[in-house]
Inverse folding.
């Protein structure tokens, strides 16, 4: 493997992928070829680790494992959305659990965010995206700090791209 070193879990793979994307993306002084190589390498490793994860889950005789399995299609959706917005100028991207939160100067890219499935959280003054499979289970409202503490948080460095208001 050229880019990914010592990746043993899906979580490590995702974290390393995000770091490599920040470093090698064409909008961030990287090259298209490097990004394509990273994506191909990621896909190969992802399939290998996914198969290993599913085999381990299938080998446990716990009846609750079927509803605890990680939904790997969610990871692909998250990566796709990140690829679309990582070049927007003036925004801050934060991944909290399986949600993407966007803050900063989002006014110029609001239409692009809407087009990519983001919704505006007026009480948090941020945009958010989550997969279609999410269903809220309670009416409890948490602060962003509580959400970060509960699910963990990772900021994604964006690439500066000039946006013009149409």
């Amino acid at each position: 493997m050229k880019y990914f070193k010592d990746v043993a879990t899906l979580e490590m793979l995702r974290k390393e992928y995000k770091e490599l994307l920040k470093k090698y993306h064409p909008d961030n002084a990287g090259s298209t070829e490097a990004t394509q190589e990273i994506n191909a390498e990621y896909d190969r490793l992802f399939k290998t680790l996914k198969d290993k994860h599913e085999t381990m889950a299938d080998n446990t005789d716990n009846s609750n494992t079927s509803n605890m399995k990680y939904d790997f299609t969610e990871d692909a959706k998250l990566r796709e959305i990140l690829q679309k917005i990582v070049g927007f100028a003036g925004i801050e991207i934060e991944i909290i659990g399986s949600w993407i939160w966007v803050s900063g100067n989002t006014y110029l890219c609001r239409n692009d965010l809407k087009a990519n499935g983001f919704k505006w959280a007026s009480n948090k003054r941020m945009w958010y995206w989550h997969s279609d499979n999410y269903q809220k289970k309670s009416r409890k409202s948490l602060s962003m700090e509580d959400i970060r503490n509960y699910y963990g948080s990772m900021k994604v460095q964006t690439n500066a791209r000039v946006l013009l208001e149409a």
